[in-house]
Queue: 2 jobs
Job 1
Amino acid sequence: MSYSNSRSQLDSATLNQQDNSVFNVEGVKVFYSGFLALLDVYLKIPEKQIVAFIGPSGCGKSTLLRCFNRMNDLIPGAKVEGRLNYRDRNIYDPKINSVKLRRQVGMVFQRPNPFPKSIYENIAFGPRSNGYKGNIDELVEDSLRRAAIWDEVKDKLKAKGTALSGGQQQRLCIARAIAMKPDVLLMDEPCSALDPISTRQVEELCLELKQQYTIIMVTHNMQQASRVADWTAFFNTEIDQHGKRRGKLVEFSTTEKMFSSPETREAEEYISGRFG
Ligand SMILES: Nc1ncnc2c1ncn2[C@@H]1O[C@H](COP(=O)(O)OP(=O)(O)OP(=O)(O)O)[C@@H](O)[C@H]1O
């Protein structure tokens, strides 16, 4: 039920089981100004599941996460090679409209980053700018409800989003992403700036949201991965011939297997806290 980075080691049974995949990553590598930061990744992301990316600092988790909605395009010097199919289309095809892609593949960042606008406008602004034709009031309420924050904000929709607590701001940002009706949500350490109660609320929210969305989450918190993720990808670094560190996907399997009987020694050592 698991496989490691090398294509020759791919477990085809596992891959075939994931025929419902939303993304199929085929030999993706990422360079920053010519430096190979992430070695060829092969990975399938199953639909309506939560996939966690774990591994030590600098192993390329965020780099790969940003590939799924071409956020690396916005980093000067970043270059992505390989194929990354989103529902059978290579998103690195020059004909792909990356702005449209980012509507389908939304992102929630490490630090909550609400717009300096009202709670209502935080949700309404994006859809309205994109010509949303439906009832905006309903969309705002529905998005806030789905993000499990409606009851806390329904009486102060005109208040500034930035005046909410950190945990509420993060759920507001998730509501903002949901309002764009995405297919996939990318989350880059969404709880790292939150207290344990807010963290738990966001985790519970993710478990709710996976009924409708596919979620890919970078997390440093292994308990979090084991609590929420259906699948876990373990990344590590290796030293190249010039002494430079580069990231690689070491192992991908169900979370249950990753945390009970990982295939590789690297994953086993990381999970048992022996490094990282
Ligand atoms: N914008 C950038 N410009 C240049 N190099 C970058 C950039 N972002 C990341 N890198 C490099 O790419 C490699 C992978 O970084 P990345 O942030 O993806 O790792 P990570 O696993 O998410 O780390 P962390 O857990 O510390 O956030 C590192 O060597 C890093 O220095």
Job 2
Amino acid sequence: MTSQNDANTIFLTEQEAERIRNTVKDRLKKCSELVGHAREPRDSKAAISQATGASLMADMGGAPDADMTQTKGQGGTLPALTVGQPYSPCIVSLQDLQPMKLADLQMDTHHRGRRLTVKRASPVVTLAARSWTMVQDEAGDETERLEVCLRKSRHGEDILESASVFVIKEPYFTLTDQGEATLRIDHPSDLIVCRDEFANSSLTSANEVNGHAEDAAAAEKIARTCKDKGNAALKQRDLPLAHAKYTEGLKVARQDVVSYTNPDLARDISRNRAYVNILLNQLDEAKNDAKASLTGREDQRSKDLDSKAYFRAGCAAYNLGEYQEAKGFFDEQQKITPGDKDASANLRKIEVRLHEQEAGTYDLKKLGAGLSRARPQVDAASFISNTKVRDSPGRGRGLFATRDIPAGEIVMCEKAFCVVWGHESEALTAITYDVRDDRIRVSPVGLSTSIVQKLLSNPSQIERVMDLYGDYQGGGKNVSTTEDGPVVDTFRVHDIVSRNAFGPGSQYGEEGASNASTGLWIWAAYINHSCIANAKKDFIGDLMVLRATRPITAGEEIFLSYDESNDYDARQTALMTTWGFECNCALCAAEKADDPAVRKKRRELASEADAFVEREHWANAKRLTVVKAQRLARAMDDTYDGERYEGVPRVATRRIREWLAKASRRR
Ligand SMILES: C[S@@+](CC[C@H](N)C(=O)[O-])C[C@H]1O[C@@H](n2cnc3c(N)ncnc32)[C@H](O)[C@@H]1O
């Protein structure tokens, strides 16, 4: 992530850092000693009462969250999370997994090829970044702890609170940092949530339908009931329930036995589910549902229904940023219902988006004026056609100009794939200790969670995100869906966020390190770093606007400066800690060859210059003050070797030189 400014920096006390490291190392040691050992049965009563107490405490705001870490600076208290050894999510469909029981669990083991059905047996303990509860298997004779990391579901509710029956795919049984045995879910797709009302689902009876007329009528009735329940839930604004009911109804209505006699039932449910999907931001399914609901008939009622369907498909495509496709849908809508005002309004909006996308011309003032805390996102298209991705030797892939770009002109503009603003409830920063490189970092965990959820809701986007650079490449199998739904590897998302996220700055009020806004811009994520960058980014809401800071020729690589510190050592440390590389641009090469004592002297003079600039305003500077500034600038210049710094900027002198330029212009 782009570095925070000083006011936002989080400092851990040495004791805290040590405590985090030791806790994790102790846990890993215990885990390695226990691998494959049989699980020790729990005393059910005691376990449930322990969870009930902890849940009460958590609800009252006094949760004994042993994972909270005290920080100095603006961070306050933050959750501390371990980034352990990554493992892949389950990519096998539920029906191909063998059932197991709690009693079969082995310590610190991924039970590959197995599935475990459990029911919740205690209240849920909701902590900042995770939640846990006690569960029992179907017979109720064994009790175990179940913990979910990234605890919120796609619909924003706590996953464990959302139901009482769960199926765990390939259960991972391990220890908490406090050494307590637990089932642990890292990938949301490894936990199948069975809503209570569906446990004894009418689907079972529908599945048994075998083609007799009376069975067909029974199946149709079931589908109709589901549709009605979905409509009722929608009226109550219970969108997850409405979605679940429509989905259940569709499963039945799409069976031959129903669709043969009443094909419109599946169409009606699909059209309704398309609407709910748009509200839930599940745009892939919204688009498919809307298309599946089309009748293609010519009578007025059918035309009205198809007009609605085209409208929904158009909205889904528009919100996915697929403007050409959206145009196609709204054109169709206009064709069958010519007077429709929504269709023409949307077509006008799309014309603007397509122009932005093709020509890179934006009304940036207007876009900025429409922003507020309640509406932090702009309605704009991305413009990326001046650039392309290709190999950048020594740096992986990079972004290159496809034409000459004059200084000050837009290189590219990009709408964020996902942003979590500091003022939103999703914003969550955590201290993460990564066992792979022994480093402690500040991680935008809320952004990772939102990205995982967005991908689960819109699987068509999984490939684009997973193509980004991350240290962990996954298990080598790029499976993004099974029969049970989309699969997203949260460890990969975490690593991608660590190396590719940007901060759009505090556009909507005060932010500290614990609630800094962060986001992912997929195309901009291909831009490599140079301390002597040729582009600079700015944000209007979630639109990143990248401009050339000097003329860029076609074929040249675009560079941003990930860290703008003037000090070589501070810069290298930040680049290594946050992005995992050592910069060898011309500036770093020149500075690296400086004697450390010279660098130290330059650093001291730079601090002096900073203090001077803060203290003395150039507008009222007296002659003596100007002379003092000139002396300081000269002293800094003397720390540079003229030959080695030929053509290389003397970045430490920048501030004082700018001050001098302004002061002398005034005279
Ligand atoms: C935001 S991504 C940039 C795109 C990336 N190169 C790729 O192949 O997808 C950041 C990562 O690119 C690499 N990188 C960026 N600038 C670099 C540089 N100047 N030298 C070496 N590696 C660099 C580092 O691995 C860093 O973590």
